[in-house]
Write a structure and sequence with these properties.
Radius of gyration: 23 Å
Strand order of the largest sheet: 6-11-7-8-9-10
Strand content: 15-25%
Oligomer: single chain
Structural class: alpha/beta
Number of helices: 9
Length: 340
């Protein structure tokens, strides 16, 4: 829940500005609490910024309030009182820093969830962020989950990276954003809008520090399949499995597949690979209710686009017939698997 308060012009008097901050932060927290209570009282249909309607079940959401203060001269040493609710108070500059550095709503919210309830001087959020990032940089990934064995590659990155998102390779980093934009623009029907948001959140869970490597590999796949000139179908697939904790990051299997053309055959290969991945992960992990998301990239006939994006998603037990699963295994290649 976002609330914003703006100071049009500072008085230049520190005590007076502290009073203004105290009063307006308290007011924003009360307003946010009232909005959360209203949303928890009953389900509501709301429109997102794309103009799509979403059914919001407020009583199922773990709410976090963010109060944004637009103030040019916050008095030095001022530490806001965030009240008894789950809330964080930031200056607008702090807020913009977090989004510029992480470029991910999922990981900004993960960071805010880590600092909620911890008093800190207003306007110095970058200092706190880098302290946490430095600590994350020294941490290790911990033990591999059972499904991380069998020769699979283990990739790990801290939840709060020291380097800003995409600092190494902008194109590779923004591949994921391009895919998300394609999915966000696709017409899928109102009844599936919440599913679309879950898929976008799932993709956004890829750790910021690993997005360049993932994007680089998928771009290599796209380039290789685009150059394919034989009559047969060429595909390359990258699978990403979650670590042992179902947290803000990748909390279910992700599959990126590039194919040399978009045909019923390539769509069938894509769909059944995703089915098999979802089925196998359930057997290996014992998890229930997890989501698997697959993304298919194929050469685009539109000269303004490098590829066409297709998507498939599954959640829960698919109850696949054992004979069908056996048949799938006979025809599918082994794919490169990384564990995040």
């Amino acid at each position: 829940m976002l609330q914003s308060k703006s100071r049009a012009e500072s008085s230049g008097e520190a005590d007076r500005e502290r009073g203004w901050l105290d009063k307006n932060i308290a007011r924003a927290l009360r307003q946010a609490a009232g909005s959360v209570r209203a949303l928890r009282s009953r389900s509501r249909t709301m429109s997102n910024r794309r103009g799509n309607s979403v059914e919001v079940h407020g009583d199922e959401i773990d709410w976090l309030t963010v109060v944004l203060i637009d103030h040019d001269e916050v008095p030095a040493g001022y530490t806001p009182d965030s009240g008894e609710e789950r809330a964080v108070v930031l200056t607008r500059g702090d807020w913009e820093f977090l989004f510029d550095h992480l470029r991910s709503a999922t990981w900004v919210l993960d960071y805010l969830d880590r600092v909620v309830g911890e008093p800190f001087e207003l306007g110095r959020e970058p200092v706190r962020y880098y302290e946490i990032a430095a600590s994350d940089d020294l941490a290790d990934a911990g033990d591999l989950p059972a499904w991380g064995a069998n020769g699979r590659t283990h990739a790990w990155a801290g939840r709060a990276p020291l380097e800003p998102a995409g600092h190494a390779e902008t194109e590779a980093h923004f591949l994921l954003r391009s895919v998300q934009e394609d999915i966000g623009r696709t017409e899928i029907g109102r009844e599936r809008e919440l599913e679309r948001l879950e898929v976008l959140r799932h993709l956004d869970g890829i750790p910021v520090g690993l997005r360049v490597e993932v994007g680089r590999r998928v771009l290599e796949f796209v380039d290789a399949t685009r150059k394919w000139r034989r009559a047969t179908l060429a595909t390359r697939t990258r699978v990403i499995l979650p670590g042992s904790a179902r947290s803000a990051g990748v909390d279910g299997p992700l599959m990126f597949m590039a194919a040399s053309e978009l045909t019923p055959t390539s769509e069938a290969v894509f769909r059944t690979r995703a089915e098999l991945l979802h089925h196998d992960f359930g057997l290996e992990s014992g998890w229930e209710g997890y989501r698997t998301t697959g993304v298919l990239l194929t050469p685009s006939s539109d000269h303004q686009k490098a590829w066409t994006t297709s998507m498939v998603t599954a959640q829960g037990n698919l109850d696949l017939d054992p004979s069908y699963v056996t048949e799938l295994r006979r025809y599918h290649d082994v794919t490169r698997v990384d564990v995040l």
